[in-house]
Each structure stands twice: as structure tokens, then as C-alpha cells.
Write a structure and sequence with these properties.
This protein is an alpha/beta fold. It has eleven helices and ten strands. It has an eight-stranded parallel beta barrel with strand order 1-2-3-4-5-6-7-8, surrounded by six helices. A two-stranded antiparallel sheet has the order 9-10.
């Protein structure tokens, strides 16, 4: 099972230099990209490069989680991607342009067959789906629950969606997402919660604007996302800081849990004049789980 992560950094799958450098980025996960960042004529070379990196990096613990973003199912390239890289035992496959639980189940079947071919345990390779990159995907966002035990997280995308919608831009003059894209973001968050998996916020494309990144990451954390995608190593430290529970938040969570433990069966407890109910208890447990995953337990 993949532990909760805070940051996941995209790295072009055909760049040996960038892949090697990414190991020192501090990201909780690396996403070896075979899709958007790789030109059509470079796909085959990228598969070989990604496989070599998986085989090398996989032998060097401690290491970040290693994911591979394959090409979308509709492209006809997914099988060739999986044929090439499953032997490298990636921790997860990122499925772009996913359209609901049916797409995840389809990928699950493909992985099952290839795990058997390579002698890997059934279900070892997990799935993270990009759930909002097409207009039609928005209408099936609620179908991920129970689609596959491999599914460990959902994220969303605004760039492909803006092209599909025909939008002139996906952000306003202040750099915030416009309404269609906030809608997609909210659908992803709700879909992840309904499926009981991790909600991962999308990329912030201006990698020089760390203040804007911090603001967007903090808003995502406030709303319920627990991680964010990165497109540049310079973004990783900011993302990790935002999604790492603070000492004050950890102390508060422990106090809530202790208060309920002291009063078994209580529906509400009071701490320093503030009332906390069962939803607060569940949020406290989730926060401590994220803290433990970040090594703060």
C-alpha cells in the first residue's frame, strides 16, 4: 500500500539527466512521464530510459515513490508503455484522461496480466488517476469507489480540460482558477473522499512564483487535499512544508483524540472552552496519520 504523500514531481521520462537529478529533489514521489512531456518520436526511447531508471532507483532505498504516467487509454499507446515498464516494478501507474471507474478497472486488468508475466505479486502496482482532464470525465467522477483495490489517489488537471472545453484560459487575472476549473477541482476532491482515497491537487504552472504556489497549496489543504503535484524541483520544498502537519496542529489533534479516549462513548468533548464532536475526532486521526507518514509520528 502506498503511504500518503505530500508532493509528486513530474520528470520527463526521456531525460536521463533530469531523472537522476530528481532523486535529490525531496519529493515524496517522482512521476516518470511518458505522456505530455515526451514527443511522439521519443516515446520508445522514453520507455527504455524510464525502465532503466526504475531498475536502478528501485535498488537504492531510501527512495521516493516511483510512479509512471502512461499515455491515455484512448491513444492506443498504453499497452506498449506497460509492456516496457512493469518489469521495473513501479510503485504506481498514473492514468491520464481517466473517465471514471471503468477506465481504472480497464487499467487494473492490464496490470494484472503483466504482473503475472513478470512474476510480481498480484496488485503490487497501484493506480493514481487524473480524473478531470476531459469534459466527459466530469460526469463520471463519482464512479471511482470500488473500481479497483489498486486505486490509491485521484488528482485533476486543468490544461487538457481547458482545451477540451475551448476555454481561452483557466485562470483569472489574479492567477486563480476560473469557475469551470474550480468545479472540476471540487469534483476531484469529492470523488476522492467518496472513494476513500487520497486527493492530490493539480500543478501550479508558474514555477517561479513560489508565493502563488504557497497560496494555492494552502487553499487546497484547507479544503481537504493532502498533496500537490509539482512540475519543477524548486516547487517541492514549498509543497512539502504546506502539507506537513505543523507541531501546533499535531498537538491539537492529539488533544482531541485524548479527550475522546478519556470519555468513551461521548459524542462531544470540550477542550479549553471549545466543543469538539466526532467529525473533529476523525479529522484528528487523519492528520496524525499524515504526520506519521511524514516521519513526525
Amino acid at each position: 500500500m502506498i503511504a500518503a504523500l505530500r508532493s509528486a514531481l513530474f520528470v520527463p521520462g526521456d531525460s536521463t539527466a533530469k531523472l537522476a537529478k530528481s532523486l535529490g529533489s525531496g519529493a515524496d514521489a517522482l512521476i516518470l512521464d511518458l505522456e505530455d512531456s515526451v514527443a511522439a518520436e521519443r516515446k520508445q526511447a522514453a520507455r527504455a530510459t524510464a525502465l532503466a531508471f526504475l531498475e536502478d532507483a528501485g535498488k537504492r532505498p531510501p527512495r521516493p515513490l516511483l510512479m509512471v504516467r502512461v499515455n491515455a487509454l484512448e491513444t492506443g499507446l498504453t499497452d506498449a508503455d506497460l509492456d516496457a515498464i512493469v518489469a521495473g516494478r513501479p510503485d504506481a501507474i498514473m492514468l491520464p484522461k481517466a473517465e471514471g471507474g471503468t477506465a481504472v478497472a480497464h487499467l487494473d486488468a492490464k496490470l494484472t496480466a503483466r504482473e503475472a508475466i513478470h512474476g510480481l505479486p498480484d496488485g503490487e502496482i497501484r493506480i493514481v488517476a487524473l480524473a478531470t482532464e476531459t469534459a466527459s470525465a466530469l460526469f463520471v467522477a463519482g464512479t471511482y469507489g470500488g473500481a479497483s483495490p489498486r486505486l490509491t489517489g485521484l488528482s485533476w488537471g486543468a490544461e487538457d480540460l481547458s482545451a477540451d472545453l475551448g476555454a481561452e484560459t483557466n485562470r483569472d487575472a489574479e492567477g486563480r482558477f476560473t469557475e469551470p476549473f474550480r468545479f472540476a477541482r471540487n469534483l476531484c476532491l469529492a470523488a476522492a473522499a467518496a472513494a476513500k482515497i487520497q486527493a492530490i491537487d493539480t500543478v501550479f504552472v508558474d514555477f517561479r512564483d513560489l508565493a502563488g504556489l504557497k497560496r494555492e497549496a494552502e487553499e487546497a489543504r484547507r479544503d481537504g487535499f493532502t498533496a500537490k503535484l509539482a512540475i519543477h524541483p524548486a516547487q517541492v520544498a514549498t509543497i512539502n512544508a504546506v502539507f506537513t502537519p505543523s507541531p501546533a496542529a499535531i498537538a491539537k489533534a492529539r488533544a482531541v483524540i485524548a479527550a475522546f479516549a478519556a470519555k468513551p462513548g461521548a459524542g462531544v468533548v470540550g477542550i479549553e472552552g471549545i466543543m469538539y464532536d466526532r467529525p473533529h475526532l476523525e479529522r484528528a486521526r487523519q492528520l496524525l496519520a499524515r504526520a506519521e507518514a511524514a516521519g513526525l509520528g
